[in-house]
Write a structure and sequence with these properties.
Length: about 325
């Protein structure tokens, strides 16, 4: 089993590449749920949905989230009826949230519901939420504290951030299957997702970080930052606000206790020595994933590195 830690859009590109390179049934994807939020009474899990839609071949290739060709009739009507509908939920996407919320109201756990939805959409990979307990990413700005989606979508990450925390993390438990997947993995891949608000919440669930440190699997990460900026989104700003350098070196620092290898942009080759001083090997290469061919190429490189690093032959790898 190849285990992947990921957030939404950035991570989904590598997940798509990996699913093209190996049998998708060999992939277990552990997803961030810190971005989850309730909109119009419906439980929305954006990162789980982005990964599910990507692997189902349904995702919007331009936006990177939502369903390709979706319409927004329900949202328009919600706005007409006086709702503050700033989070762009498409009509087909609404069906996912309605189903999930109904199943949750009937007592279902997020893990079971995620598994049911991915099967119904024809996804062969296992998709696990990091936890069935509610962990909420909260962003402290100079104007006050807001949810992650308020910061990311409503505010378009303009606010000056002073801190990020994960409400509920301390008392949360890893979702069923998460620790076993990490301990039994043949390789673990940390996607080029935001280290603070995508991978950070996963690592904040008690037991996950220590399982990563304990696992014998080779662990390969891909930097979401080239130079001093994120390839997309506000990772660089949030890293600075959380006391890390806004660079691939800062990314390495976030994962220094468990990562074996970090792929960084060719532009960042000069960071090699500083990252190696953290006991992490560096591969400077082309880490941009503009199209499907780039995603497959990067996935191949990541898998080849994991295979090289592993002390035993990996069955899931080509
Ligand atoms: N991202 C946006 O930038 N704007 C949106 O209106 C938006 C809506 C949305 C709806 C459903 C969904 O599953 C994801 C959506 N996203 C949207 C993406 C999402 O907010 C972020 O990409 C993740 O939370 C960060 O990983």
């Amino acid at each position: 089993m190849i285990v992947v830690l990921t957030g939404g859009t950035g991570g989904a590109k590598l997940v798509e590449g990996l699913a093209g390179e190996i049998d998708p049934a060999e992939l277990t994807i552990i997803c961030n749920t810190g971005d989850d939020a309730v909109f119009h009474g419906l439980y929305v899990s954006p990162d789980i949905d982005t990964i599910t839609y990507t692997l189902a071949g349904l995702s919007d290739p331009v936006k990177g989230w939502g369903i390709a060709g979706d319409t927004f009739t329900v949202l328009e009507q919600l706005n007409r009826l006086g709702n503050d509908a700033w989070f762009n939920l498409g009509d087909k996407d609404f069906a996912t949230h309605i189903s999930r919320t109904r199943l949750m109201n009937e007592g279902g756990k997020l893990t079971e519901i995620t598994d049911r939805i991915r099967r119904l959409l024809g996804v062969q990979s296992t998709i696990l939420p990091m936890s069935d307990d509610r962990v909420e990413t909260r962003v402290t700005t100079t104007q006050g504290e807001i949810s992650f989606q308020e910061y990311f979508v409503k505010d378009r990450w303009r606010a000056e951030v002073t801190a990020v925390h994960f409400a509920g993390a301390a008392s949360s438990r890893p979702a069923p299957g998460v620790i076993a997947a990490i301990l039994n993995a043949e390789a673990i891949i940390v996607c080029p997702s935001n280290p603070i608000t995508s991978i950070g919440p996963i690592l904040a669930v008690p037991g996950i970080r220590s399982a990563l440190a304990e696992s014998a699997a080779p662990m390969v990460g891909v930097s979401p930052i080239i130079g001093a900026s994120a390839i997309s989104g506000p990772a660089h700003k949030l890293m600075l606000a959380s006391g890390f350098k806004a660079s691939a070196l800062g990314v390495a620092d976030c994962y220094r206790d468990f990562l074996d290898m970090l792929l960084v942009g060719a532009e960042d080759a000069a960071l090699r020595e500083a990252i190696e001083n953290l006991d992490i090997n560096v591969i400077a290469t082309d880490i941009r994933m503009a199209d499907r061919a780039h995603r497959r190429r990067l996935a191949r490189e990541v898998l080849a590195l994991a295979r090289k690093w592993s002390r035993k032959p990996l069955s899931g790898l080509p």
